Amino acid sequence: LRLLHPDRPLAGRSALVTAGPTHEPIDPVRYIANRSSGTQGYAIAAALAAAGADVTLVSGPTTLPDPAGMRTVRVETAHDMLEACRAALPCDIAVCTAAVADWHVAPAPQKIKKTAGAPPPVLQLAPNPDILATLSQPSPTRPGLVIGFAAETEHVVPHATAKRLRKGCDWIVANDVSPGTGIMGGTENEVCLIDATGCEHWPRLDKTQVARKLVARIATFLQTPHP
Ligand code: CTP
Ligand code: CA
């Protein structure tokens, strides 16, 4: 199939992409979330689909429409995102771009009311599951290539290199999202691709170009035999 379609090097492969933020409810009207538009993740999902992969996009709440040519599963919380990812296994490639909230709270069943003079409520945070680390664990259904993202505000390469080892993923795409860069919420991205052999710095590119370049790397990796 792949030899017949050189422009679709991922034909016959399946891919899972997480994207967007997660929302962790505090009560029926409030939530905890990270800043994430979902743009980079949706662009990667689209580039994987364009390369012929069968794509499942597991997306937290975004304002972006469901992309054409793939299965989109909409979720709210980190717990639901993990369940949707598990349901998408087995697959060949997993790319975790989602800005998953690190904590959740036990949500109040009714809207928490302000009471004059009373102390403000204190949120008791509990850790969320780590989806990337879970997908990276050795298992018969571990995707052959697991890729994470690391948005850092300082010491980008050392932090991301340590994160790759901690999570157990194969590659990590690191970027500097500190306020001066203008990356956060923008249409461009400037990343380093980190694997077991080191770090490769890419120039600042449109997020769709970053996606295409990453997918080209994925295709090359999967075409190369690995012991
Ligand atoms: N990630 C995930 N599930 C989580 C947290 C993070 O799948 N509960 C994934 C993200 O999608 C990303 C990678 O892990 O691909 C790195 O996320 P990041 O928030 O940078 O890592 P953390 O381990 O949460 O570290 P930090 O303390 O920097 O937030
Ligand atoms: Ca985090």
UniProtKB/TrEMBL annotation:
Associated pathway = Cofactor biosynthesis; coenzyme A biosynthesis; CoA from (R)-pantothenate: step 3/5; Cofactor biosynthesis; coenzyme A biosynthesis; CoA from (R)-pantothenate: step 2/5
Residues annotated as domain DNA/pantothenate metabolism flavoprotein C-terminal: 10-220
The highest taxon in the source lineage is Bacteria
What this protein needs as a cofactor is: Mg(2+); FMN
Reactions catalysed, as given in the entry: (R)-4'-phosphopantothenate + L-cysteine + CTP = N-[(R)-4-phosphopantothenoyl]-L-cysteine + CMP + diphosphate + H(+); N-[(R)-4-phosphopantothenoyl]-L-cysteine + H(+) = (R)-4'-phosphopantetheine + CO2
Q: Where is this region: Phosphopantothenate--cysteine ligase?
A: 15-227
Its EC number is 4.1.1.36, 6.3.2.5
- Say if the entry is tagged with keyword Lyase: yes
Which residues are CTP-binding? 102, 111, 129-132, 149, 163, 167
Q: Which UniProt keywords apply?
A: Decarboxylase, Flavoprotein, FMN, Ligase, Lyase, Magnesium, Metal-binding, Multifunctional enzyme
The reply on keyword Hydrolase is: no
Instruction: Give the cofactor binding note.
Output: Binds 1 FMN per subunit.
> Which residues are the signal sequence here?
none
Please report which protein family the annotation says this sequence is part of: In the N-terminal section; belongs to the HFCD (homo-oligomeric flavin containing Cys decarboxylase) superfamily.
Q: What does this protein do?
A: Catalyzes two steps in the biosynthesis of coenzyme A. In the first step cysteine is conjugated to 4'-phosphopantothenate to form 4-phosphopantothenoylcysteine, in the latter compound is decarboxylated to form 4'-phosphopantotheine. Catalyzes two sequential steps in the biosynthesis of coenzyme A. In the first step cysteine is conjugated to 4'-phosphopantothenate to form 4-phosphopantothenoylcysteine. In the second step the latter compound is decarboxylated to form 4'-phosphopantotheine.
What name goes with this protein? Coenzyme A biosynthesis bifunctional protein CoaBC
Q: Give the species this sequence originates from.
A: Komagataeibacter intermedius NRIC 0521
What's the gene?
Answer: coaBC
Placed within the complete protein, the shown segment runs 178 to 404 of 407
